[in-house]
Amino acid sequence: MLRIFETNTPECDSFITDLNDRGKLMDENILRTVRRTISEVQDEGDKAVARYTRKLDAPRFSTKGLRVRPNEFKQAYSDVDSDYVEAIVHAKENIEKFHQLQMRTSWLSTEEDGVLLGHLIRPLKRVGACVPSISQLLVSSLLMSVIPAIVAGVEEIAVCMAPMRNRRINPYMLVASAECGIDEIYKCGGAQAVAALAYGTETIPAVDKIVGPGNLYVQMAKKEVYGHVDIDKLAGPSEILVIADSTADPDFVGADLISQAEHSPECSAILVTTSLGFAEQVKAAIELQAQTLPRQYELVKAFENYGGAFVVEDLAEAVEFTNKIAPEHVELHIENPLEWIGEIRNAGAIFVGPYSPEAVGDYIAGPNHILPTGTAARYASPLSVDDFMKKTSLISYTKTALAKVTPHVVKLAEVEGLEGHAEAMKIRFEDE
């Protein structure tokens, strides 16, 4: 199930090329569908949203049931057990605590001659989140999408989730929403939900920003509406890369590779190791563990498509290879892992040591699990409080201060051929 490669070979290069092409937003058929969906939602509002929801999710759906009602939250609590609520509360507390540390404040700086310069940091007013709830029930992604917005101080948060065939939202999703204090939930998913949030309908008010993971239709829709509203990022299939030496436990490493491969056939699960023997052990561990897991199709296909073990000379080569891949998740199963953290420049999240599995980061640790994918870790960051803040510059000059800089501004404006800029400075001192 896990192919073993040597680095710097044609087979290795071909694998990396396939990996980098995975999940690219280039499907013209999907793009046409997405554009048609967006156009119809813009023209028809609730009617188009309901029509797509009937077609894709709940056959008897109507516009009357678009927003979740208070009694549906009450029913949801009766459908889940107390252990689930306890787990949600614990996760919520950790995620809140971590994101509270990211908060920044506005500042003012007093300069010479009474000049004031500042940076005003304020939350967005209204944000929408699209969260998968049918093909994959991503309760954790709901928490990771809305809690940073809550911490940032966003006034209004709307969540879109596709309903089940019985026209209800999955109770686990509703309870998680309620525990976060979110009661504005709409029963729609896919590109139609993105369009509704971006442009608004009779029932769904438009938002300023759309966040959250989703399939290729959702990501293409986010790309299409970007500019009219802001988006968090274009999320591709999930990725994990484990760096391991001979001190690692092959069962732990195999389990962690499986934990990402089970998401979908497009996910990548990569081992980079200094030991061929260890790679063989991990391969055997994966084949044994996978036998008892339910998502067989996703697992097998993911490892066939984008699973691989790469044998390197030393840890320095392993880190160089990792930075080239720029994966979403990196795990360090090596001796003295803290010594190598600073060398890993391109990763969405780094998990240090054998008892820091990626799964704990997905659910409970606190850092956000909505991370850059598809090599975007070269330049992008995890979802954070900053994604829900906007910054405004503040400039206040006195007459004395402006007089001192006017010759410089006039000169620069004249060089650029913008005489109006120059005159806007000179007019203030014409009588002097």
Query: By helix and strand content, what is the structural category?
Result: alpha/beta
Segments where pLDDT lies below 50 for 5+ residues? Answer: none
The major β-sheet equals: 6 strands, parallel
Q: In whole angstroms, how far apart are the ends?
A: 83 Å
Q: What's the number of extended β-strand segments?
A: 14
Strand order of the largest sheet: 1-11-10-9-12-13
Q: What's the order of the H and E elements?
A: EHHHHHEEEHEHEHEHEEHEHHEHEEHEHH
Total of DSSP H or I helical runs spanning 4+ residues: 16
Give helix % range: 40-55%
What is the gist of this entry?
With 432 residues, the protein is an alpha/beta fold. 44% of the residues lie in helices and 16% in strands.
Key structural traits:
6-stranded parallel β-sheet, 16 helices, 14 strands
Structure description:
- The chain has 432 residues and is an alpha/beta fold.
- The protein is 44% helix and 16% strand.
- The protein has a 6-stranded parallel beta sheet, with helices on both faces. A 5-stranded parallel beta sheet has the order 6-5-4-7-8, with helices on both faces.
Secondary structure topology:
Layout (H helix, E strand, L loop, with lengths): L2 E4 L3 H12 L6 H17 L1 H11 L13 H10 L2 H19 L6 E4 L5 E8 L2 E5 L8 H14 L3 E6 L9 H9 L5 E3 L2 H10 L9 E3 L4 H10 L4 E2 L7 E6 L5 H12 L6 E6 L2 H15 L5 H11 E5 L3 H11 L3 E5 L15 E4 L5 H6 L25 E8 L2 H17 L3 H8 L6
Parallel strand pairs: 1-11, 4-5, 4-7, 5-6, 7-8, 9-10, 9-12, 10-11, 12-13
Antiparallel strand pairs: 2-3, 3-14
